Amino acid sequence: MFEQPKTEKSLSSQLLQLPVVVAALGYLVDMYDLFLFSVVRVPSLKALGVDGDQLLPEGIALLNWQMAGMLIGGIFWGVLGDKRGRLSVLFGSILIYSLANIGNGFVTSLDQYAALRFVAGLGLAGELGAGVTLVTEVLPKQIRGYGTTIVATMGVLGAIMAYFVADIFAWRISYFVGGGLGLVLLVMRVNIFESKIFETVKERQVKRGDLMMLFSNRERLVKYLQCILVGLPIWFVVGILITFSPEFAQAIGVSEPVVAGKAVMLTFAGQVFGDIGSGLLSQYFQSRKKVIGGFIVVSLGIVLVYLLVPIKDLNVFYVICMLLGAFNGYWALFVTIAAELFGTNLRATVATTVPNFVRGAVIPLTSLFVYGKGHVGTLNSALIVGVLTITVSLISLYFLEETFKKDLNYLETD
């Protein structure tokens, strides 16, 4: 009768060990900064003299600068994480994006804003991949899904926090808050320890963080590309449907103006439940693929409602945004699969570059959306891009290996 409490204590003590907690808090700050721009896009651009029809194209341009930084940063931090260690990424990335966040609060021109969003993107690129890699390597395989769920859930809470901070404070102060939180977390990271799996590999004479290993083997390259494609629907929804929700709401005839910040907040409130739910379901079914597939299919249905149903009531529109968030709540599982599919000497490279290439895919997705918008209209263009994105992701998921019970103590070889 005393065995159950002992097991529960053991589980909680493993999940709440310092690397997991600090990785989760790091992703909270990461997501705060990443989505703060979506929340303050309109007021910050208006303060810099942008108004009217220019708010959308200038907002897309700034978002693309941020995502370009994440693409480049994802490669840099991923390789560094496998060559020097997971902790070097956790320290370096948070320092860069915290300082860039503070700098965003001082911008006086669009050029300065674009440059600092690019630098912030460089820093933000390293946080999630390094955190998930560390968590998957320090936790037993039976519970690592819980660990990455904790990390992802804290990240989504960071996005919600961005809304409330921006609602209370002016947009410049909101950036200062994010930078300050990052610097505080940097101090907390002094005492965390490196993954033992990585430390063992580091002592051996094997290639680590060699990006060309992803391209030298056809099977490995296909697997890598499939990982990226599985995550695309998440950023189609967030980067297009939610970031530009005021424009979509106007197009479908919502009776009142939509506040982008509120749409973002409600979407990520939904994603909190989605991340928790998808993580628990994957543990229950002992499958990452089944849960992700189910979430993507339901998400497609909600996307069709968002774009095709003539919604008039503002509150109904916000509820749909929340549902979109809930069924896009497989971000943690998606990154976990990417980490589990590759050996220790390439794991950080993959787990860091894959989510950032997905984020960076917002650039071609928004470009395709804007191009189509001029030919078939706002709603039809988004519909075409969305259906294409989701179809490709489901096909890619089908061919991926199930990784729930996979042992991570292995290497990639030439």
From TrEMBL:
Membrane topology: Multi-pass membrane protein
Residues annotated as transmembrane: 20-40, 60-80, 87-107, 113-134, 146-166, 172-192, 221-244, 292-311, 317-342, 354-372, 378-400
GO CC term, one of those recorded: plasma membrane
SUPFAM superfamilies (UniProt xref): MFS general substrate transporter (SSF103473)
InterPro entries the UniProt entry points to: MFS, MFS_dom, MFS_trans_sf
Major facilitator superfamily (MFS) profile domain ranges (all copies): 19-404
Record flagged with keyword Isomerase: no
Membrane among keywords: yes
Main location: membrane
Pfam families linked: MFS_1 (PF07690)
Alphabetically ordered keywords of this record: Membrane, Transmembrane, Transmembrane helix
Highest rank taxon of the organism: Bacteria
Gene Ontology MF terms: carboxylic acid transmembrane transporter activity
Cell location: Membrane
Descriptive protein name: MFS transporter
Organism: Larkinella rosea
The organism's taxonomic lineage, starting at the top: Bacteria, Pseudomonadati, Bacteroidota, Cytophagia, Cytophagales
